[in-house]
Amino acid sequence: MTIHSMTGYAALDRDLGHANLHLELKSVNGRFLDLNFRHSEELRFLEMPLREKLTAAIGRGKLDCRLYLQPNNAAVPQLAPNFQLVNQLVGLEAEIRAVLTAAAPLSVAEVLRWPGVLAAEAIDAERLQAECFALLDKVLGEFLASRAREGARLADVLRERAARMRAEIAKVEPMVPAAIAGYTERLATKLREAVANLDEDRIRQEIGVFAAKIDVAEELARLVAHLDEVERVLAKGGAVGKRLDFLMQELNREANTLASKSVSAPVTAIALELKLLIEQMREQVQNLE
């Protein structure tokens, strides 16, 4: 399944003759789906059906939808006379001329200039809805494609960071025995100096307990397991944002533990590098649906 970013944009116009229908979709990241509509007054009746279609197609993100009907200046307006109003004017003229017999008759030009006699051809609501839905299908297709392209790019970034984390973790494993051995020797020396009469068995026992506390094998194994799950989720695709966000928390927890248990400067440096990579991944995950 495709991974989608929550960032996307698409806009198209549809020629309706004397007017252009403009539809624009723009989204950024958000915890839930937040739809915000901006439209001209004559298109208000389309908000609910558009909301239903967008809700069915988009899972998460703050989405702005702009819908406008704009005059087409390049088109020749199709004017149609209002014959009902013309007939009213004819009747009124006859009544007035019965009283004012010397009054001049209305000319055709005067009738055409009368407010409301000539009007541009209106688009009925049924056709307007059909045209809007057809335009939405195209805009939505481009919009989802832009989110898919961005999602693929973010997934590649996450895979690259995960690979770098694996490389850093691999460096730690051969360091651990030598680091523990060196620290154990230093600790034994300090114990002997501090307690001259402490027997060797007791020293080895105390050192063994402490060595178990600073052993990071479990943390390294969990880090690898979490990275395996990150790659599995990315390979599966779909709505991965929340799952990956949880995994970032778990990775960060293990990196913190690795840093706190480290007894060597190189291991500590690697733990800090892991935390940096995890934070970079978390920033990218925040943009995934």
State the helicity in percent bands. Answer: 55-70%
- CATH architecture designation of the largest domain: Up-down Bundle
What is the overall shape?
rod-shaped
The biggest sheet amounts to: 4 strands, mixed
Notes on the protein architecture:
The protein has 289 residues and is of the alpha+beta class. The protein has three domains: 8-75 and 124-149, Ribosomal Protein S5, domain 2; 79-120, no CATH class; 152-285, Butyryl-CoA Dehydrogenase, subunit A, domain 3 (Up-down Bundle), CATH 1.20.140. The chain has helices at 47-57, 83-99, 108-113, 125-194, 200-214, 217-236, 241-261, 265-285; strands at residues 8-15, 19-28, 33-39, 61-71, 79-81, 118-120. The strands form two sheets. It has a four-stranded mixed β-sheet with strand order 1-2-4-3, covered by helices on one side. Strands 5-6 form a two-stranded antiparallel ribbon. α1 (47-57) links the parallel β3 (33-39) and β4 (61-71). α4 (125-194) packs antiparallel against α5 and α7 packs antiparallel against α8 (265-285). The radius of gyration is 37 Å and the shape is rod-shaped. The mean pLDDT is 82.
